[in-house]
Known about the structure:
The chain is mainly beta.
Amino acid sequence: xxxxxxxxxxxxxxxxxxxxxxxxxxxxxxxxxxxxxxxxxxxxxxxxxxxxxxxxxxxxxxxxxxxxxxxxxxxxxxxxxxxxxxxxxxxxxxxxxxxxxxxxxxxxxxxxxxxxxxxxxxxxxxxxxxxxxxxxxxxxxxxxxxxxxxxxxxxxxxxxxxxxxxxxxxxxxxxxxxxxxxxxxxxxxxxxxxxxxxxxxxxxxxxxxxxxxxxxxxxxxxxxxxxxxxxxxxxxxxxxxxxxxxx
Length: 247
């Protein structure tokens, strides 16, 4: 059943809806399909192909911030382009950056309504390296750093989808080799897997799935590698884990 769905420019990232019927993609450059031009942004297209449906483009983001669309930089929050979508496709989170401003983390409904920014620090040097959304769309987790070049701690934080409450700090662990490490939430948003540690998103407790040592002589040998289960994946309920070992 291999078939072409769509071709885009730039560096697109893709996600499937839970039922596999829709493909969501985000690109930092404009593109054309069947002679029709599309702006950089976040889109959905049928699994069988066809014309893409715009969810949010650089024009909407520029209007939200009151800047000229030509001054809008990229659908990227740091060095990569990241977004995630709930299983039913009704909620999405994504990173963006505007001229003369730092990284921004935003949310939008699958029909393009409800575009809003999460209240993160208004810091030009804020980098958001990764973001994840739970399957039920209730929780958002992101990895950020205040400055580049590793001179500030990393922040792994959890947020409610609607932005209510304050962000919960889960971890300050990270480094240059972990910027693109996968962040994966359980479907109910209760737990998140990051580098082999399973954190409760309410901030109350965590479970180490692998030993990161040996950082001191008393540590047992490393089970996987210095960065834990870097390439790991888990089941939607957070009960089974798959990873590649580096010996």
